[in-house]
Input
Amino acid sequence: MKHLNIALVTGHNYISPNMIRITLQSEAIKSFPANATGGHIKLIIPQPEHNSREFQKFLRSFGVRKRMRTYTVRHLNLQSGEIDIDFVAHGDDGPASAWALSAKLGDFIGLSSPGSPKLKPSQSGRYLVAVDMTAFPAAAAGLEGLSSDSTGDVYAEILSEKDIQPVNAPDGIKLHWIINSAPHAGSAALTSAIRNHSLTGDESVFVAGEYEAVGDLRTYFRKEQGYAKDQLYISSYWKRGLIESEHKRVKTLVA
Ligand SMILES: Cc1cc2nc3c(=O)[nH]c(=O)nc-3n(C[C@H](O)[C@H](O)[C@H](O)COP(=O)(O)OP(=O)(O)OC[C@H]3O[C@@H](n4cnc5c(N)ncnc54)[C@H](O)[C@@H]3O)c2cc1C
Output
């Protein structure tokens, strides 16, 4: 397992009704790779009864895996050693969401070092993105790093109109917001928007979100449209009714 560090909460803001941006600060973040924005990171959620000493010990124990969840580095500030993580506030049925809802300045959390960004650069400069709110941070971070002449379409499923958020993407990237207040009932509007979109064949495709929708779009791009693997990033970020470790097991079984 990657080396784990402790970070402190230095910011807690609702950027929209269903998305909480938490800023985390730690000395370890000062040595993250400069291109970590948009990469995933493992967070270890303390148990409510942990004090910081007990949590240090917990980070070295086997039980740590049960409290580990995957998130995305939305912004990175190497100088101050801070990252922003945007949490979907889906209730207190999961430790990460519950923690984000109740976190206060000065609270602690565990974190790993980050992985690399997920949005693949495309030779054509064209992009097609389909995401829900869990994958929006990874997509937005990637889009904000594209060259200014990039073009494409982003279909973003959000829980309410008030969850629309600004993205500093190139002018040629068009955002299409799809409201779905019940993601537990499926993402049919998102998948049909993609199936109705006119493909050019040379886009870099980024698809991430709930397992069933992602599975449908994987079939669409790989089997029905014959897109090559290296043109695609397709990954499920959560699965209805399963906690993260169970979802990961299902993903491995079908891979
Ligand atoms: C590479 C990667 C990057 C990710 N980046 C982000 C990110 O930046 N922001 C973010 O919010 N999520 C992100 N996710 C998704 C996040 O890891 C999962 O949503 C995770 O399950 C949340 O943990 P939890 O403790 O809140 O819930 P868990 O304990 O894992 O699950 C508890 C219950 O909540 C349900 N659930 C989980 N997520 C959601 C949801 N979004 N909406 C409704 N119900 C849900 C589960 O189906 C389960 O029934 C990412 C996932 C991956 C793989």
